[in-house]
Amino acid sequence: MIRTIGMIGAGNMGSAILRGIVEAEYVRASQIIAFDTNRKRMRELEEDLPGIRTASDCLQVAEEADLIVLAVKPIFVRDVIEEIRSALSGKAVLSIAAGWTVKMLEKELRGTDAAYMRVMPNTPALVGEGMTALCDESTFSKEDFEFVKGIFDSIGKTRILPERLFDGVVALSGSSPAYVYMMIEAMADAAVKEGIPRVHAYEMAAQSVLGSALMVLSTGTHPAALKDAVCSPGGTTIEAVEELERKGFRAAIMDAMKVCAEKSREMSK
Q1: Same structural domain for residues 149 and 195?
Q2: CA–CA distance, 80 with 60 (Å, rounded to integer)
Q3: Which of 27, 172, 176, 249 could form a disulfide linkage to 31, CB 3.0–4.6 angstroms apart?
Q4: Do 155 and 200 belong together in one domain?
Q5: For residue 108, which of 89, 80, 144, 136 has the smallest C-alpha distance?
Q6: One digit per residue, pLDDT tens: the chain, 269 residues?
Q7: Number of domains in the chain
Q8: Domain range for residue 103?
Q9: Residue 169 domain-assigned?
Q10: Domain holding 238: CATH number?
């Protein structure tokens, strides 16, 4: 049974998960122990989450936690596992590292009897609107799997998917906040060019993206139909849509996601 969560790596994603689950009251801050090599991040967590425990190294996290979350960059996962290996007996190891497959985890954890699981979250978890894919190929007990699902349910939406789809997941939800932020920035820049104050431009662009996303989720209507409903005959929106098509807007997004997925596959080798 999982009682204590150990977070190794408190960067954007790790800290977003911790702040999100405490704010959602899924766990108490006192149930968390965290470590990051960046001491500034540790101080910020201690200030934001009173009661959280911070460790002196990765091994201390592994020794004191039931669930160990590997939230470090993919290139450091192997080194971290080696550092904490002696404390992994009977523990549950959760990886959120892009490109780290179940087989890779199995290989690195061999001989420890630790259970392992792979998930792919995204940073909107910080505001309770994350999208997380949980890999159905896991050695977690049913109870522990449900506990982990509860973590991510408390900070957004979840989907349980086979690992063969995870490269696409990385491109679709793991990395896509960056694409959306770029679009919001571009929309705001264009608005500023039209004379709208920047502070209003960012708010109006972001709210428009948020509202449009909620329309897709709440109505279940095909995005193309929602787009058509905004395009009045001979109006302004169809002019913008035509220009976006001319400039390869959809193709650029699809191509970007393709190279993102390919990079994920490359990292898994």
Answers
A1: no
A2: 12
A3: 27
A4: no
A5: 80
A6: 778 999 999 998 999 899 989 988 999 999 999 999 999 999 999 999 999 999 999 999 999 999 999 999 999 999 999 999 999 999 999 999 988 999 999 999 999 999 999 999 998 988 889 999 999 999 999 999 999 999 999 999 999 999 999 999 999 999 999 999 999 999 999 999 999 999 999 999 999 999 999 999 999 999 999 999 999 999 999 999 999 999 999 999 999 999 999 999 998 87
A7: 2
A8: 5-164
A9: no
A10: 1.10.3730.10
Please state the length of the chain: 269
Residue type, 6: G
